[in-house]
Design goal:
By secondary structure, this protein is of the alpha/beta class. The chain has 5 helices and 17 strands. The radius of gyration is 32 Å and the shape is elongated.
């Protein structure tokens, strides 16, 4: 059977709906713990460098090799630097025991993983050749201070919130959540958990639509089931229009005598898109 000539295809209908869309006008500031699924209203820049200092990428030894082409056979271990500690400058051809994330001391130009060394009597020997600056994470290598981390319009997920926390950002400006009113028309509709009367069906669409909207970060005002009458439909539409940014209805849009949504819309405003 051929489709009716006056029906819009999906892409055309979507484009016409998007023509009516506008960015939210209001924004609010929320904590990171409240940021999941929200949309940034402003660009976010980093107040710090990440890492904030040159540090070791390995558990091992920080070395000051004076001449990479003529390095000594062994290096005296002169200090120990754990994460959160700051060492003293390394003299040429000495080593510091160092742990992942610890600041490298001044003079260090190589970090060697501990498994590539042997240690005896306070000295270490290298089991493999090394290259300058290996296993050293430089200040600002991942994120530079004042760089844009996320742009306005970014929907925040767990990975974004973790990155924001890593640069010390505790609150974010986000658009006010879109408030969506939903209602469902039909005398045949019954809520799950209730017995079905003859000719009735369960209102499954209510739960799919609510879940999809909440997944998108919307605030949902659910007006439940509206019975099949012109007055009830008009009243529900008027109330939902006064309390929401957008209304989604389900049912009541065919051409039968009990389908009242189209007439209710026309009684409140205009109909710009149909079929």
């Amino acid at each position: 059977m051929k489709p009716r000539a006056n029906l819009l295809d999906f892409e055309s209908a979507r484009e016409r709906l998007l023509d009516f869309a506008a960015l939210p006008a209001q924004s609010v500031t929320v904590s990171l713990l409240e940021g999941q699924g929200r949309v940034l209203a402003q660009d976010i820049t980093s107040p710090i460098n990440v890492p904030g200092f040159d540090n070791s990428a390995m558990d091992g030894y920080a070395l000051h090799i004076a001449n990479i082409e003529a390095q000594p056979e062994a290096f005296a271990v002169v200090q120990r630097i754990a994460a959160g500690q700051t060492g003293t400058p390394l003299a040429p051809d000495t080593a510091a025991r160092i742990f992942t994330g610890a600041p490298i001391p001044a003079g260090c130009n190589v970090v060697v993983p501990q498994e590539l060394t042997t240690e005896e009597n306070g000295q270490i020997k290298l089991l493999k050749p090394v290259s300058l600056n290996q296993h050293i994470r430089r200040k600002g290598e991942d994120i530079t201070e004042n760089s844009v981390i996320f742009k306005a319009g970014q929907r925040l997920g767990p990975q974004h919130l973790a990155m924001l926390a890593s640069i010390g950002v505790g609150t974010v400006p986000v658009y006010q959540s879109l408030k969506v009113g939903v209602f469902f028309t039909g005398d045949e509709l019954t809520e799950p958990g209730q017995p079905l009367a003859p000719g009735a069906i369960y209102n499954s669409n209510r739960y799919a639509i609510n879940a999809l909207l909440k997944q998108l970060g919307c605030t949902v005002l659910d007006y439940g089931i509206i019975r099949d009458s012109a007055e009830a439909t008009r009243d529900a539409l008027a109330r939902a229009a006064s309390e929401n940014d957008l209304i989604i209805t389900c049912g009541g849009v065919s051409v039968g005598e009990e389908d009242h949504v189209k007439a209710a819309v026309l009684s409140q405003g205009s109909l710009d898109l149909w079929q």
